[in-house]
Specification:
Elements (H helix, E strand, L loop, with lengths): L4 H12 L25 E3 L3 H4 L5 E7 L2 H8 L3 E2 L3 E8 L2 E8 L8 E4 L1 E14 L5 E4 L5 H5 L7 E3 L2 E3 L1 H9 L9 E4 L3 E2 L3 E5 L4 E6 L5 E6 H14 L7 E7 L1 E4 L9 E13 L2 E12 L13 H12 L6 E6 L6 E4 L16 E3 L2 E3 L4 E2 L1 H5 L12 E2 L16
C-alpha cells in the first residue's frame, strides 16, 4: 500500500501536535550565553562513575495505541518494513515482529535512517576558559556516519553492517540467498540545542583525559525530546535516531542510579484510509573512551539500540521471563542487548578507516527460545563474541 510523501507528512505533522512519546511535554529552548553565576565541571578521576555504583542501562518502551496494535495484527500499518514469526516453549507460542523481510525470502531490505543531532547547553557550568559549556555531537557525527552501524566491515557472517551481521548469525540456517537487513546512509536533520537549567544536570570532567560528560535528569531530557520529535520532519518508514555526546540520564541526575545511555520506542503518528502510521525511534549517546571503561565507548549505545530495534521494533515481542546474567534482574521482552550490557567485555572492537569502534555483542533469538541446541551460526547464543553466553537464557529465580 503506498501514499504520496506530501499527504503522509501532512497527516503525521498534524497528529504529532498532540503526541507524547514517554512522559510530560515541555518546550525546549535555545541559549546564547551563560549566566554570570556559573561554575566549572566537577573534577573526577578515571573510573569515577563505576566507583559510585553507576552501570550502563538501556530502556525500551512501546507507546503504541490499542488501535495501532490491532492494525499491526491486521497488516494496516505504515512504518519500517517488518516480518513476523513465532516460537514455542513449554506449550506456549511466542510471536515476534522484526525489521526487514522474511529470511526465507532472501534479498536485501534497506531501511532509511535519520539522525537528529542534539547539543546540550548547561546554564550552570562554564568550560576552563569561562565560555558557555556545550556538549555537541557535531564533532563525532562523521565518526557515527562511518561506524559499523552504517558502514560495512568483516564479520564471521560476512562483509556487512553490524546489526545485519547479528541477524545473519541468528537466521543462519533459514536465510535465503543474499538476505540482508541494512540501514541506509543516514540523513542529518536540523540540529537542536537544549538549554539545561540549573539543577537539571551534573557535569564532570575527567582530570586525566579532560573529557567532559554530563548526567542529566531523565524527566527533563525526555520532556525536551517530546517537543523535538514534534518539530523535526521524521519519516515513519525510516528509523529516527536522536544523537547526543557524553550525555547520560538518571532520575534527578542521581549518580548512583546512573546511567541510561540509550532507549528505543515506537508511537502512533497518524492515520490515513484506516492505515496507522507508526514511528520507530532511538536515542543514543556517543561515549568518549574511558568514561565507562575501555570497551564501552563511541557507538556502543547506538549499536545496542539498533540491534534491539531490528529485533523488536514496536516493543511488542514477549518471551519467556529470563534472568539477566550475573544479576537479580528479570525481564520478559525480546531485548537482545540487555543481557550483555553490563559485561565488561561486551564491546566487540571493529576497525574502520583507522578508528576502532566498540559495537555491543548481542544475544541471539536462540537464547530466548531455550532449545537444547542453537541453530544459529556455529551453534552460537551470542554474536559476534560467541563466548559471552554459551547456553540459553535461564528462567527467573524464585523470590
Amino acid at each position: 500500500m503506498s501514499f504520496t510523501r506530501n499527504r503522509l507528512n501532512r497527516r503525521v505533522r498534524s497528529f504529532c501536535g498532540v503526541m507524547a512519546v514517554l512522559c510530560l511535554l515541555h518546550g525546549y529552548s535555545f541559549a546564547q550565553s551563560a549566566p554570570p553565576d556559573t561554575s566549572q565541571p566537577i573534577e573526577a578521576a578515571g573510573g569515577f562513575l563505576q566507583s559510585q555504583g553507576a552501570q550502563p542501562r538501556f530502556e525500551a518502551a512501546s507507546k503504541l495505541s490499542r488501535d495501532a496494535r490491532a492494525a499491526m495484527r491486521e497488516g494496516r500499518v505504515f512504518s519500517v518494513p517488518y516480518f513476523s514469526g513465532s516460537f514455542a516453549w513449554q506449550g506456549n507460542a511466542y510471536p515476534y515482529t522484526m525489521v526487514g523481510s522474511k529470511p526465507q525470502s532472501g534479498g536485501t531490505t534497506e531501511v532509511p535512517a535519520q539522525i537528529v543531532p542534539i547539543s546540550m547547553f548547561f546554564e550552570e557550568f562554564v568550560d576552563e576558559s569561562g565560555s558557555p559549556l556545550v556538549l555537541d555531537p557535531a564533532q563525532v557525527l562523521p565518526r557515527v556516519q562511518s561506524s559499523p552501524n552504517f558502514h560495512k566491515a568483516q564479520y564471521a557472517t560476512g562483509l556487512t553492517q553490524f546489526a545485519d551481521a547479528v541477524q545473519l548469525a541468528q537466521f543462519y540456517r533459514s536465510a535465503g540467498p543474499d538476505w540482508h537487513t541494512l540501514l541506509g546512509q543516514p540523513a542529518i536533520l536540523k540540529p537542536v540545542r537544549i538549554a539545561v537549567p540549573r539543577g537539571a544536570a551534573k557535569v564532570y570532567r575527567n582530570r586525566s583525559t579532560g573529557v567532559t560528560y554530563a548526567i542529566v535528569d531523565t524527566n527533563f531530557f525526555i520532556s525536551q525530546l517530546n517537543t523535538i520529535i514534534q518539530l523535526e520532519n521524521l519519516q515513519p518508514d525510516a528509523l529516527a535516531i536522536a544523537l547526543t555526546s557524553n550525555v547520560f540520564l538518571s532520575p534527578q541526575s542521581d549518580i548512583k542510579k546512573c546511567c541510561v545511555l540509550g532507549f528505543h520506542t515506537s508511537f502512533d503518528v497518524g492515520e490515513l484510509a484506516q492505515v496507522k502510521f507508526v514511528q520507530t525511534f532511538i536515542w543514543a549517546s556517543w561515549v568518549d573512551q574511558g568514561i565507562l571503561g575501555p570497551n564501552l565507548a563511541d557507538v556502543t549505545p547506538m549499536s545496542h539500540e539498533i540491534s534491539e530495534w531490528m529485533n523488536n521494533p514496536f516493543g511488542s515481542n514477549a518471551v519467556p521471563a529470563w534472568q539477566v546474567p550475573n544479576s537479580n534482574a528479570c525481564q520478559s521482552n525480546l531485548e537482545t542487548g540487555d543481557p550483555l550490557a553490563t559485561m565488561p567485555n561486551a564491546g566487540s572492537p571493529v576497525l574502520i578507516d583507522g578508528f576502532t569502534y566498540h559495537p555491543q555483542s548481542q544475544v541471539l533469538l536462540q537464547w530466548f527460545q531455550r532449545g537444547s541446541a542453537s541453530d544459529a551460526y556455529e551453534g552460537a547464543y551470542s554474536f559476534p563474541d560467541q563466548t559471552l553466553v554459551t547456553g540459553p537464557s535461564q528462567p527467573c529465580s524464585t523470590r
